[in-house]
Amino acid sequence: MKIEKIKYRIHEIIYEADTPAGRAFDVALFYAIILSVLVVMMDSVSSLHAHYGYWFHVIEWVITILFSVEYLLRIWTVKNAGKYIFSFYGLIDLLAVLPAYLSLVFVGTQFLIVVRILRLLRVFRVLKLARYINATEDLVMAFKASRRKIIVFLEAVLIIVVIMGAMMYLIEGPENGFDNIPKSVYWAIVTITTVGYGDIAPQTFIGQSLASLLMITGFAIIAVPTGIITSEINRVRKSHNTQTCSKCFYDNHDDDALFCKKCGQKL
Questions:
Q1: Which residues of 50-81 are buried (b: 16+ CB within 10 A; e: fewer)?
Q2: Which sequence spans correspond to the domains of the chain?
Q3: In CATH, what class is 2-129?
Q4: Coil, strand or helix: which one is 240?
Q5: Percent of the chain beyond pLDDT 90?
Q6: pLDDT digits (tens, 9 = 90+) for 124-144
């Protein structure tokens, strides 16, 4: 029973951010991740590596060992270890420590440690961002609900760039760099997205006028998908907390949930 209480307490600290201890753990994890990534980035600078390479190496291995212990504790405290290991966050946690150990065998792989930045996704729980964007599940639902509108929007954009590209080919022609319609369509895409590489540019007054119209249209078009997805997000909005089921590892429960909606385990 004592071991079970310890496991429950560790699970509460590691997996939940609604308690003071859990929040403190996640904040400490946040700073450790940032420090680790900064160390790897600075170590790639030759001048800094020459002066502080030894200390960078020490700091990195201390953090790697701490992350390894944390990873093992996460496995130990859940009822279904396989569920965690092969979950999205489980794979990210593994990738956070794996490159350091691979570097002992394969030279140069230590710089892959920067993938630890992905662990910052856990900070969403600390900052309670899920209460405003309704977590990943709600965002995915919003994308699915708006996919038809997005497809229609993209079809409209495709029609516009093809027509504009063909017109620009007729107006400017090969002598001004618009050698063919596909290249002209490429120019229309670059222009309507406001990227503007400048490798092709209209030289005639009519061409420049058409380009100006396309640029203005681009500003209006950029806002369309954002509005569609935001509208769908507002429709599926729910209130969630950070409680994680120790049995099935589901972590998207409602605020008033007492039992896991997936497996029925008491939270």
A1: eeeeeebeebbeebbeebbebbeebeebbeee
A2: 2-129, 136-235
A3: mainly alpha
A4: strand
A5: 21
A6: 555 544 444 445 666 777 777
Confidence of residue 159 (pLDDT cuts 50, 70, 90): very high
**Residue 86 DSSP SS3:** coil
Task: Give CA–CA dist 115/79, Å, rounded.
Answer: 27
* Helix (H) and strand (E) counts in the chain: 10, 0
Rounded to whole angstroms, the Cα distance separating 67 from 158 reads: 47
The second-level CATH assignment, the architecture, of 136-235 is Orthogonal Bundle (1.10)
> H/E/C letters for each residue in 115-171?
HHHHHHHHHHHHHCCHHHHCHHHHHHHHHHHHHHHHHHHHHHHHHHHHHHHHHHHHH
Pull the structure tokens for residue 258.
């007492």
Residue with token string 């200390």: 55
DSSP 248: T
80: left (phi over 0), alpha (psi -120 to 50) or beta: beta
* pLDDT score at 168: 92
SS3 224: helix
Please determine whether the domains at 2-129 and 136-235 fall in the same fold group of CATH: no
What are the two backbone dihedrals, phi and then psi, of residue 5, each rounded to the nearest 5 degrees? -65, -40
